[in-house]
């Protein structure tokens, strides 16, 4: 495919792989590395570029002038879609879960969407749950006043997104034993697992509670590859109460990780992923000699710099 207008600046691919020295891993004989997908593009960081670029190509090829998509109040996908529309000169419409949010000031994520030109439509939660029903979707498109928009599902997770994320697994071939990623809708894990080499494993850390994600990932892989792969699993213990939920323990962990390594830790996805890997290392889940890679997929618009110390060594 070659019809998509070039996005400037050009994406940084493959994304950097950064090994960390952290005694919570090294004392168990485990090597921790970060796959810095957050550095792929300043406006479309991480899995958002990988999940969107084939969808953007399809939208442009088919002559659509608008992108319409869905997300929660803290959706990185909404923010990336709004930025993509700005970069490509396309209108964007964001269907936001929770009509009560329209009565509040916009949070940093939604404010950035609006600044990039996205028209925000707030939907009650009951309707949002039925958004994939053809009649409901048609009504939402009509309500938004969108003419023939290209519809991207929540989180950007569809077959094109999964195809785009297979390159993530391919970039990690020969570099890790376990590749781990925080999961919202499962598209990144589905694609990454499909791109890994034999013998490598993919680990997903869901940031939502509910136990439904495994079925979604299997369905995405079935649609994309013809069958689910057998090289991934989920650990659902680290959602900390649900999407965008946090606890003082998680906040303290993220602040400490920032201090140890001089890295900004996004709270909705990345903090939960890094906490989970640290806990699993301390539990002895990873055998000595294991190389573990955490895929950093998100940046936080509210905290662009590290919490405190800029030291790159661990305590």
What features would you describe in this structure?
With 315 residues, the chain is α/β, with parallel strands linked by helices. Residues 303-315 have low confidence and may be disordered. Strand 7 (178-183), helix 8 (187-195) and strand 8 (201-206) form a beta-alpha-beta unit. The longest helix is centred in the N-terminal third of the chain and has 15 residues, at 47-61. The protein has two domains: 17-43 and 157-295, Rossmann fold, CATH 3.40.50; 65-148, Rossmann fold (3-Layer(aba) Sandwich). The strands form two sheets. The protein has a six-stranded mixed beta sheet with strand order 1-2-10-7-8-9, with helices on both faces. Strands 5-4-3-6 form a four-stranded parallel beta sheet, sandwiched between helices. The chain has eleven helices and ten strands.
Describe the protein's topology.
Layout: E1 17-20, H1 23-26, E2 31-35, H2 47-61, E3 66-71, H3 76-88, E4 91-97, H4 108-115, E5 119-123, H5 125-129, H6 134-144, E6 150-152, H7 159-171, E7 178-183, H8 187-195, E8 201-206, H9 213-225, E9 232-234, H10 248-261, H11 270-283, E10 291-295
Parallel strand pairs: 2-10, 3-4, 3-6, 4-5, 7-8, 7-10, 8-9
Antiparallel strand pairs: 1-2
Helix pairs in contact: 2-3, 2-7, 3-4, 7-8, 7-9, 8-9, 10-11
Query: Major sheet, described briefly?
Result: 6 strands, mixed
Contiguous helical run count:
11
Runs in which pLDDT lies below 50 for 5 or more consecutive residues are: 303-315
CATH class of the largest domain: Alpha Beta
The helix fraction, in percent, is 25-40%
Order of helices and strands: EHEHEHEHEHHEHEHEHEHHE
How many domain modules? Answer: 2
Shape: globular
Give a count of the beta strands, DSSP E runs of length 2 or more. 10
Give me the Rg, rounded: 19 Å
* Secondary-structure content class: alpha/beta
The termini sit apart by 47 Å
Lateral strand order in the biggest sheet: 1-2-10-7-8-9
β content, as a range? 15-25%
Reported by name, the CATH topology of the largest domain is Rossmann fold
